[in-house]
Amino acid sequence: MLNENQVAQHYSHGNLIGAIEAAVSSMGKTTDKLSIDDLGPVDEFHIGGRVATSNLLGQTNFGASDHIIDMGCGLGGASRFIANKINSRVTGVDLTQEYVDTGNELNRWVGLDKLVNLQQGSILSLPFEDESFDGALMLHVGMNIADKNALFKEAYRVLKPGAIFGIYDVMKTGDGDLTYPVPWATDQSTSSLASAEEYQQALEQAGFKAGVINNRRDFGLEFFKQMKAKTEANGGPPPLGLHTLMQASTPLKLKNMIENISAGNIAPIEIIAQR
After folding, report:
1. Count of C-beta atoms within a 10 Å radius of residue 63
2. With the CA atoms of 76, 102, 188 and 222 taken in that order, what torsion angle do they form, in degrees rounded to the nearest 10?
3. What integer pLDDT is reported at residue 228 of this predicted model?
4. Roughly how many angstroms between the first and final C-alpha of the chain, as a whole number?
5. Which helix (DSSP H) or strand (DSSP E) does residue 163 occupy?
6. Share of the chain above pLDDT 90, in %
7. How many domains does the chain contain in total?
8. 123 or 234: which leads in pLDDT
9. Which of 90, 112, 138, 241 has the most other CB atoms within 10 Å of its CB?
10. Rounded Cα distance, 191 and 184, in Å
């Protein structure tokens, strides 16, 4: 089983809130005049960013009266998007304390701290009562969790009957060896990829009905193509982006990600399950 401290350390930055504040300033903005769209390039740490989050949310039945859990929330970009879009309450849980602290500060910057609360913890052992939530999302998280059965059993426990669980993870689609580092892992020791079929099996074993499965390979490659084109056209990356999180390792990690997807070894995949 992966060491959760190793995973948390992989994502730790050291001065993330300072880096974001500096980027905001270089954009000519102040923290009291930001929108969630301004933060989107950095706080949606998954392939396709805000577009991918919107697409996943569109396949759920979440409403304003619902309390949603964002499992492995990172900086809380998806949590804020949901709260802003449908006015629902969202609780996010993530291993990395720096992400949680930074995310809660971002909540305050954009005036969503009454609807969105992020807390540090493991999604394999959630500090909530049974059937606490009306829905759940998990975006690019399962790649760091070896025990998918335990993961989905815990998700099933905290969700109410009939709740939708939207998953968007990088999944294994071929048998080739991956080139590291990638955004979620420096090497194999903190990577635990599984196929969509293995996800489906684990979900159904936990009690879910695994419905829609969407392979978003082409979408992912187009996302990276457009990102590269914009970067080249602008003579470098924008002030705020994925490089703010991954720092100097960004080009290599993105290059390897693209090559791994292009080779058919991995792909971003959506699964919509129901409790």
Report:
1. 12
2. 50
3. 87
4. 26
5. strand 159-172
6. 69
7. 1
8. 123
9. 90
10. 7
